[in-house]
Amino acid sequence: MFKKIILIFCVIFTIFISQAIAKEKEPQAHTDEMALYKKTEALTQIPWYYLAAINQYESNIEKNASENRLISINIPEKLWFGVSNPNHITNTNIIQISNGIGEDGNGDGLADPTNDEDVLYSMANYIKRYGVIEQDIKIALWNYYKRALTVQSIEQIADVYKTFGTINLEDSDFPIPLQHNYSYRSTWGDARGFGGRRIHEGTDIFANYGTPIKASRYGVVEIVGWNRFGGWRIGIRDIYNNYHYYAHLNGFKDGLSVGDVVKPGDVIGSVGASGYGPPGTSGKFPPHLHYGMYKDNGYSEWAFDPYPYLKRWEQKAKNK
User: Fold this and answer.
1) Domain carrying residue 266
2) Is residue 216 part of a domain?
C-alpha cells in the first residue's frame, strides 16, 4: 500500500514538474524566436513582423510541426532544392545552379530545410527578390502562396505584431463583460428558418440591449456593416487563422473601421436584435450576440463550434 502511494505521488509530482517546465520554457521560446526574426531582418531588410507573420500563419496550418523547432515554415522540396537537384544535395552552390531558393542562414555552407536559420533566411531572401517595401512583399507572398486569403491573413498578422511590438500575444477575453447579465448555452447545429432551412453556426449569448461587446483575441477588423441574416455585424480575423463573427449588434464603437487592430477586451460594439431583413430591421428576436468562429486551413474555410472556446475564455476572465 505504501509503495502504491509513493508511486502515485511520483507520477503526480512528475506531471506537475513537467507542466511547470513547459510554462517556464514558453517565454524563452518567444525570446529565441524573436531574436531569430531580428537577426534575419538585419541581414535581409525584410521587417521582422512579416517574417513572424509568415511563420505564425504556417504554424496555424501545419499539422505535423516539430515541437523542437522554432520555425514552422515548410518550403516545398522542389522549390528549396531546385528542379535539377533530385538527390536533394544541400550544398548551396548546387542548389543555386538548380534554381532552388534554399540558402545558408547559419554559415555552415549548407542549406538545410530542417534548420530554422536556413529556412527563415531563405524565405526572407525569396521575398527580397521582389523588394522590401510593403507592396513588394505582398507581391512576393502572392507569387509564393497563390491565394488571396493567405496573403491577406499574413498581412493582418504582421499588422498585429507591428502594432504591439511582440509575438507574445496569447491573451483572450470573454466577449461580454462579466458584471453584466447574460446567459448562453451550446446552440451549435440548431435549426434556423429565415432564408431557408439551415443550421445555426455559432453560439447565442443573450444579454440586454446596449451591453458592451468585446474583442476576444488579438486580430484585425475585416468587416463592419449590415448583413440581412446577421444584421449589424463585425468580422475579426485573429492571429490563429480564426475568423470571429459578431452578429445582431445594436451598433458599433465610434470610429471602428476595416483594418483596425484590436486586442482582447477592446469594446467593438453593443448587443442588439438586428437582422433578418433589409438594413435597419430589428426586434424579430430577443437581444443577443451571435458569436461564430470560422477556421482557415490554407485551402478552405469552415465554421466550427465556438462554445468550448467561450467557456474557456469566460473561466479565464473569472480567474482574473
Assistant:
1) 182-319
2) yes
